[in-house]
Amino acid sequence: MKIYSCQMHIDQALEELILQEEVYPIMEAVPESEKLSTKCTYCDESALYVVANK
Ligand SMILES: [Zn+2]
Questions:
Q1: In 3D, which of 31, 33, 20, 34 has the Cα closest to residue 12?
Q2: pLDDT tens per residue, range 3-47
């Protein structure tokens, strides 16, 4: 599972992944090349972070 998130929704993304996967998530910056084409899961901002369980 992977959740893309902007600055504003990163806490929500971390929490959701913890609830669903029951592991502590890994948070990484979205690569420059993907930033423009990737939107936050919760709003229309560009995603800055990707939260994943591995
Ligand atoms: Zn957002």
A1: 20
A2: 999 999 999 999 999 999 999 899 999 999 999 899 999 999 999
What residues pack around ion ligand 1 (CB closer than 5 A)? 6, 8-9, 40, 42-43, 45
Give residue 51 CA to ligand 1 midpoint distance, Å. Answer: 13
Rounded to two decimals, the pTM is 0.89
45 CA to centre of ligand 1 in angstroms: 6
CA 4 / ligand 1 centre spacing (Å): 8
Q: Assign 54 a pLDDT band (cuts: 50, 70, 90).
A: confident
* Cα 19 from Cα 49, distance rounded (Å): 18
